[in-house]
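Mods, move this if it's the wrong board.
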Amino acid sequence: MKGKIININTINRSKRDEIEFIFKNFNLNLQFLDFEVREILSQDVEQVVRSKAISAYTKWRIPLVVEHGSLRIDYFNGFPGALSKPMWDLMDGKICTSIPPGVTRGAEVISCVGFCDGKILKTFMGITRGEISSEARGSYGFQFDPIFIPRGAAKTYAEMQLEDKMKYSQATKSYNKLIKFLSDYEQNIT
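Not the wrong board. Structure tokens:
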């Protein structure tokens, strides 16, 4: 895979920073594509990623990668799931106060990465368990980072430096699975 170009379709600058961090120890050429994919409305993150991958591939016609995140809050029976961005845009930190005192604040965040080359469409999941904080804290990151505390940490993602966040990150887990797949994929086509 040395020197290989990896095409990643995202318009999110914070995601780009995380992806560059994850791939920094690999001798790969990351090519970011800026196509705003219309996202389907579904709580199923894998379904959303499959749709995004097909849309992005249809636009670019080159092998590429997409990602989508999901916040599953136990108290809300897994809601908002893959709809976390619109929920965050509407409610922001009010999500914290929507969970009554004394009930579970458990949650999980999921990163689903999709690879599509026109013949293969494969998804890779990374999951991090944790909890919803009692209030939004921190200024780093994006979307639900100010309210999610990963298991084993005392800070929200938004209170952590990128290097610390990525130790817990669901994106690190899903992209590591993608990297393993791409290594095998490259061997099978050469």
